[in-house]
Fold each of these.
Amino acid sequence: MEEKQARTYDVIIIGGGPAGMTAGLYASRSRLKTLLIENGLFGGQMTTTELIENYPGFPQGVSGEELSRLMEEQAKRFGMETISDEVVEIGLEKDLKRVKTYEGEFLCRALIICTGTEYRKLGVPGEKEFAGRGVSYCATCDGAFFKDSQIVVVGGGDSALGEALFLTKFVRQLTIIHRRDVLRGTKIYQERAFSNPKIKFLWNSIVQEIKGDSVVRSIIVKNVKTGKIEEFATDGAFLFVGLVPRTQFIRGLLQMDEGGYLLTNEDCETSVKGIFAAGDCRRRLLRQIATAVGDGATAAFAAEKYLEEG
């Protein structure tokens, strides 16, 4: 009985990005016994963003690493507990939710899922083999390894453009490869990319293979309009072709859309009573730090009301 009480919480939060840390702040500040489980860095993808310019309160921008540190510090101030572990399974046990990790099991009365997203893989030959040897999904993490190099960036959205602009600090030249002939990123990113002399564009093209020896040496590219296939020399390939939600471990338990995003109402309630979802892992129009923070606050408040009514 003592062991069960020691591992039982009012609220467990899975994921330590901006949604999870905000949920933890609100829940612990409401004097709920709160545990946050994170299997990586607190801050999630936010930690790898060099400069965040669109989060209110920082007129000159703020680094993702600094904003992550501040959010974590604030959440822990009110007594939120944290562990570094990965959740592998969630089960239902009467009015409790059982959260199983590699290291143990925990029980909670309310569960908030804030697992976010991860970068989508291209799924082409060579991608897996050269991961960490020229293939990267994080410019902030790996950009400095490509000083004076010639590289490619695959994608046309905000992530691709933002990371490409960061990479120009290190590389000699980079080519953005996009499957369409117009970019999807916001106008300010497009303007900066088009005006940067280090950036070139290869339109209407997709990567079919990544080749090399001990490291990446070239890529095979196909023009989707003409069908022409060419090989281009490159020292590295940074891939930013979309996101997929980290919800695989709860398939079959909660309702999701065809892409794996969790379906919730405006109060962040999922299809199972007492389980909430916040941030990028739930289906929504916009996925930004500001919206994740709003979700985290809403989910924690909804969880508190659920516990009061239960």
Note: Residues 26 and 301 are 7 Å apart (CA to CA).
Amino acid sequence: MNTEIIVSVVSFFGTMFGTIGGILASAKLTNYRLQQLEKKVDKHNNFAERIPVIEEKIKSQETRIENIERNEVI
């Protein structure tokens, strides 16, 4: 077989495997970053659910403090 043909076949397979490897590595990185983003969104959603509860507790504490202050003034 001619050496030019062998070199071209080897370079073709090298290029093909390199391209496929790059695509797979890129896909893995994209999936990893999406998972990290989903974790951040889950944390944010949990925080958003807790805010109304915290606000209600603050209102309750403010009412208690006002009652205590009124009793001290008298």
Note: Helices lie at 3-73.
Amino acid sequence: MRKVPQFLFRCSLAALMPVAANAAGTYYTGNYQSPQSRYTQKNYTNYNQNSTYARNVGYTMPGAARSGNTVVGQSRTQVAQPRAPQQTAASSSSKKGFFVDAGLSHEVAQWQFEMKESGSILHYDNIGWNVFDVKGGYAFNVGNTNLQLDAGFKYGMQSGDSTMVDDDITNGGYFITQWVKDDADKTIIGEQIGHSLSVGSSSDGNMLGFNIGLGLTDFFKWGNVKFTPSIGYRYLKYKLETKNNYGLSVDTAACFRIDGSDEIQCDPAIIVNYGSGDQTWQQILWRDKLTDKLQVVDAADIKFIDTGGTYYYQQPGTSHSYEVEWTGPYIAMDMVYDINKNNAVNGRVELGFPGYSATGDQPYRFDWQHPKSVEDKADMFSAMHVGLGANWTTAITDMVSFSLGLTYDYYNVSGADAKTYLNGGYYIDIYNDLLSQWAQKYPTNTEQHMLGQIEGVAGDPLAINIKDLEASCPGWVCSSNGEIESFYKSIGVRVGINAKF
């Protein structure tokens, strides 16, 4: 074994010590000692006595064979001169551990649904919500994959009064009955259609929502923006009621279009009782399409005029109550841009595929069941949800930040199925009363006479309609497929506090 003279070794060591100290800050081996450590005589002696050692001294023996970072001499091994400092890729995740975000927001929303067949439109406008929300999660690694599991909860209370409009005029109305002229040909006069418009106030509603998701934390970068894609499940429910409802109802005899224009005019349903004694009958005034005039009745015979369902009404209590749910899966993309170490901007884009359900109770409708009068429903993936959010955050401490942001949500469904739950007892009572009246005139085969099943007898139109209604609505539940189009949209301002630990 060839030895280096002790004097030469000491000189070499003294000359190379500053190089080793500077290099160690960026690149080092397991034998690195900090620059603050003093090389005592004892330390030097120990190293000098070792026949084989490895130090970052940048010394290469002449004729030595190079293998990687290690130089192999004739009898001892030394570490080669360190490489230039290397840039290592930063972790793809900016979050590790738990995080929580809580905030208060004020949202302004609108909900509307439209019935295609009847043309009825009901909408709640300028709904104010005061909302508390909290979101928490945990960021962790599985192998080389950075994941985060998060869950959120929100609860809102309606702020102030909003306006509800129940519109059965704009696009149509509701079918009441068909009128037939009492002549040899049984001429159809027209269909009696009901039109109404009511306006009420809504307050004291509430909202509940939650979501759970799984994302790939900071999965990729675009410039200085980090992106976290995720999938999850979201649930939103809100309840709205209408009180102090004022309206006008107009039952029409027939509607017609003015020639040469798009204008529609409807005749009100004015029912006239005329005759005397046993010779009394009832007829509705109708427009003669040839003369464009209402049928004239001898005033001397008129005993009573009924305006049908044409009236003004006031409902001081609860007239409408709806509970609406949107629930289903979503995909989302979260983005964060770090302005500096204390400030950042983040955003979220979410696309959901929920189902839709709206259950309504209209307690003033004595011909409908309670507490469930109507139900509109669409299966999961039948509706759509677009959610947007943006926040600016600024650090308060190393762990806590303040945030200010905006939220936007839009839900929409088209072609939802509708069900109307009728009060069967109400219709059965009317039917039985009519049957009793007809029994006085036709003691035998009374029901057949009343339903017009006996030749030469027209029957009772109301009884016939009730019987047809029962047949078309099994169990007194009327179903209509693809009837409902509905949307809910909201925009809000949010302030919050978030922390990581």
Note: Residues 1-92 have pLDDT under 50 and may be disordered.
Amino acid sequence: MSKWSVAKETVATLGEQAQDHGADSAGMLEALISTALGALAAEKDAAYVKNFVEYEVSSLNVQHIDVQRLT
């Protein structure tokens, strides 16, 4: 299983469990993103995380295919 498949399963599971935790899917994703960014900063550094987030945000409205993310 690829890292992208594991991530997609995690996101789906969070959405399914949201009500159990008094949250909605968006709230669960926000918690995941915040937690993941903190963990990524601990692995890399703040500048890396900032560049990563800026790249991902700038890609939100761009139509492109990332083969790894489709798996």
Note: Helices lie at 3-17, 25-43, 46-58.
